[in-house]
Structure formats: C-alpha cells, structure tokens
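Tokens for chain A. Residues wanted.
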C-alpha cells in the first residue's frame, strides 16, 4: 500500500488531501497541531481505517524530530508539505515587524526544510519517492506586478529554493521534488470568493505529483500541470 504524509491536514487543502488519498486506497499519515480538536479529520479517520492522525506542531523542531523518530523505517511515497500561513498581518509596508516575519518564515519556510531533512530517508525508501511543497504563483519574481504580500511571497519563494536544492541533493536516491501552485482555492485561507473548489485543486495536484518524472524534479507548476516562471 502506498503511503502519504500530509502536514496541516485538519482543514482546507490538507483535509481534502486526506479525503482523496484515503479514497484512492492509500495509507494516510495525517498530521496537525491539535488532533483532539480536529473533528473533521477525526471523522475521516473513523470512516477510513487507512487514515492515522498524528500530532505535529511544525513550529517546534522537537515535534518534527519526534515525528521522524516515530516513523523510523516507515516508507513515505508522497510527502505533502501543506501547512502554511498567509501572513496577512505582515503583508504591507508600515505593518511589518520582526516577530511577524519570523512567524511566517518559521511555518512556511523553515518547517518544510526541517521536515525534508528529517524524513528524507523515509521518502527514499518508498516506491514513488516524491516531495511536494504547496507554494503559490505569487512567489514568482517574474510574475510580481502588484507588490505587497511581503512575507508570504518571500517565504514561499524561499520554499521553492529549498525544493530545488532538495531535488539536486536527493537526485542520486531517485527522490523527486515539486513546488506547486494550488490556484486560488475556496478554503478558509482563500475565502469564499476564490476561483477553484478544493476538490478540483487537490485532484490536479495529485495527478501532477503521480506523473512527475525525475527529469522534471525541482519544477514549479500549477495544479493543472502548466509551468510557472521563477
């Protein structure tokens, strides 16, 4: 049975990833900060015996290392680095400060890097060997025509670099990485006026992930498979 690990699995895209992978018959390791209060996620775990809910606060390095220790020897086919924040209170000139910046960077940038470091052997031991970072089109330098979203843009651009570096460092182990833009999605983060339902976005991401080749490792894509300039 193929195995996926998903961070930020208690809502939005993360919850939809759990639902779709479970429906596909995968074993799902669904992580979130407070499993005891993740009612929708726990309902999925009750409905699908292949879903396991695990505690993980991505802002705590000790949690990341503890998760890796608990999963020692467990192959992970798809590692979905989904947990993230929009940084809406650290988005424009005049409202930024160091504490707000560090909060966004810790969640969007540092945590994915530490998770790749901690779980690289698990991914390498699997059949599919794929790491996916949920990025965003606004991380593209070439596509930035409006400014603002300072911390979100920068943290996700840095995530992209991490994924490209990992593609190079893990290539000999046949591990592939992908930075992907999920679209403007109808979630708590995207809002009700967003363009795409979570079901469509996640289905597209899974399809792109499953078709990713080693030659395409380290690429920056949209959920429909099209490429984005860096």
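Reply:
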């Amino acid at each position: 049975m193929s195995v996926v690990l998903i961070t930020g699995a208690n809502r939005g895209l993360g919850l939809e990833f759990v639902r779709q992978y479970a429906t596909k018959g995968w074993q799902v390791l669904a992580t979130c900060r407070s499993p005891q209060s993740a009612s929708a996620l726990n309902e999925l775990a009750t409905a699908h015996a292949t879903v396991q809910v695990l505690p993980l606060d991505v802002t705590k390095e000790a949690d990341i290392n503890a998760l890796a220790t608990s999963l020692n020897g467990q192959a992970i086919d798809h590692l979905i680095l989904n947990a993230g924040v929009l940084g809406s209170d650290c988005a424009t000139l005049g409202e930024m400060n160091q504490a707000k910046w560090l909060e966004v960077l810790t969640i969007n940038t540092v945590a994915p890097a530490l998770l790749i470091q901690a779980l690289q052997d698990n991914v390498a031991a699997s059949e599919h060997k794929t790491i996916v970072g949920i990025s965003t089109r606004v991380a593209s330098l070439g596509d930035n025509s409006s400014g603002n979203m300072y911390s979100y843009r920068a943290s996700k651009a840095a995530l992209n670099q991490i994924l490209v570096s990992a593609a190079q460092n893990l290539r000999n182990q046949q591990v592939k990485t992908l930075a992907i833009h999920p679209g403007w999605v109808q979630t708590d983060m995207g809002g009700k006026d967003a363009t795409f339902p979570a079901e469509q976005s996640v289905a597209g991401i899974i399809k792109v992930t499953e078709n990713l080749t080693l030659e395409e490792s380290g690429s920056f894509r949209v959920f429909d498979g099209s490429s984005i300039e860096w």
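Helices lie at 12-23, 39-47, 61-70, 98-124, 150-169, 198-211. Residues 5 and 84 are 15 Å apart (CA to CA).
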